[in-house]
Specification:
9% strand, alpha+beta, single chain
Length: 382
């Protein structure tokens, strides 16, 4: 989605809400169309019994520490399960330890730059703007969730004092370092390694083909290593909860943990799938450049990142809108399978947190009642 956070104070706090659960075998009524177009078939059942929604809704999200961020057209919300009083008294939680306290939900307004500037709504450009906005909100949501896990500090007289949040400068530095490392790892290192055997390859075709294979292999290896990190297990479980909750909403079922659990933890608009598309699109974007001097090779790999991101964004959005087509499913299949590394099956308590975040957004806006003008510039990745 293309939107920016105002990074101000929270608009409101929203309590966890529960809807009436639907029996697994009960027929599903047609939901309102939230995509601004004709209603699509609601649900597709996989052979293993998992459900998949067959429409695209203007909602997206992200897993955070012990919680989920959800974003709509004009608002975004973070729901975080805080540590219990007993856990706080024992000290800081380990990354593998589940928080057992209440769910805290805060909402923030979204201000879409694309609604104000027509130029930013052009294809490719809108994807770059959307990803920039998503990154800002994503790191802000991580900051909110991390601060929620911090224990309150004690003052000198022994009374509980206000806890100290993580400084914003630390988060800003984290964003810069993460971007730099991603560009170095997935763009500069592949072209650098391939350049070592440039003369042996003998053609620009073989050069960009080998570079693409190296880049994609590094990415897949990186994702595999991440999936083995035990400290990220609960984040991946919340990632699955986010996908299941969005799919449940897109299918028109009441948002309850029991309903959401029936859906697949894989989603066609996932950022993991998007990153795989980036690796593949990069192969074709860099192909026409040929074999210039090494410094031009390095420069093109850095300058080409926004173009690649914009094209990839258009492709992942197209896939989300046309997920019911057989040939689109076939193309989406590798990206969906890659999500098996970055998602895990959530429990009902984690689904409750994800639903709380989406409920907070839906309390402030109703996607089914949005006009075409309201949806201008809305580009959401789950």
């Amino acid at each position: 989605m293309s939107a920016r956070s105002d990074a101000g104070s929270p608009m409101t706090a929203v309590a966890v809400s529960q809807a009436t659960a639907v029996h697994p075998d009960a027929p599903v009524a047609s939901p309102p169309d939230v995509s601004g177009g004709d209603a699509l078939p609601l649900i597709d059942a996989a052979p293993d019994g998992e459900l998949n929604a067959q429409r695209d809704a203007p909602v997206g999200g992200q897993a955070v520490l012990e919680g989920v961020m959800m974003r709509g057209v004009a608002n975004w919300a973070v729901a975080v399960r805080k540590p219990s009083a007993e856990q706080l008294s024992e000290g800081e939680l380990s990354p593998e330890e589940a928080a057992l306290g209440d769910v805290e939900v805060t909402t923030y307004p979204l201000d879409s730059a694309m609604k104000r500037h027509r130029l930013l709504r052009l294809p490719i450009i809108r994807g770059v703007v959307a990803l920039g906005g998503s990154m800002v909100i994503g790191f802000r949501a991580l900051e909110v969730s991390a601060n929620a896990q911090l224990p309150p500090e004690e003052s000198k007289d022994g009374e509980e004092a206000e806890k100290q949040d993580i400084p914003k400068g630390v988060w800003a530095g984290t964003v810069v370092v993460a971007l730099a490392l991603a560009i170095v790892l997935f763009f500069l290192i592949p072209v650098g390694l391939t350049s070592l055997i440039k003369h042996q390859l003998g053609s620009s075709f073989l050069f960009w083909l080998v570079e693409g294979v190296v880049r994609t292999s590094l990415f897949l290896g990186y994702m595999l290593l991440l999936s083995r990190v035990k400290d990220l297990r609960r984040v991946f479980e919340y990632h699955g909860a986010e996908h299941k909750t969005i799919s449940c909403f897109e299918a028109g079922l009441p948002l309850t943990p029991a309903n959401a659990k029936r859906f697949s933890r894989l989603h066609p608009r996932c950022g993991t799938s998007f990153l795989l598309v980036v690796m593949i699109v990069a192969i074709f974007v860099f192909a026409p450049i040929g074999l210039p001097a090494w410094y031009w090779l390095m420069a093109t790999r850095i300058l080409g990142v926004p173009i690649i991101a914009g094209i990839s964004f258009e492709l992942i959005k197209f896939a989300g809108r046309n997920r019911s087509r057989g040939w689109v499913r076939a193309i989406m299949w590798p990206g969906l399978k890659l999500q098996l590394l970055t998602t895990r099956e959530p429990d009902l308590e984690q689904l409750e947190v994800a639903i709380a975040a989406l409920d907070a957004v839906l309390a402030l806006e109703t996607p089914g009642e949005l006009s075409a003008a309201d949806l201008v510039g809305v580009e959401v990745v789950a």
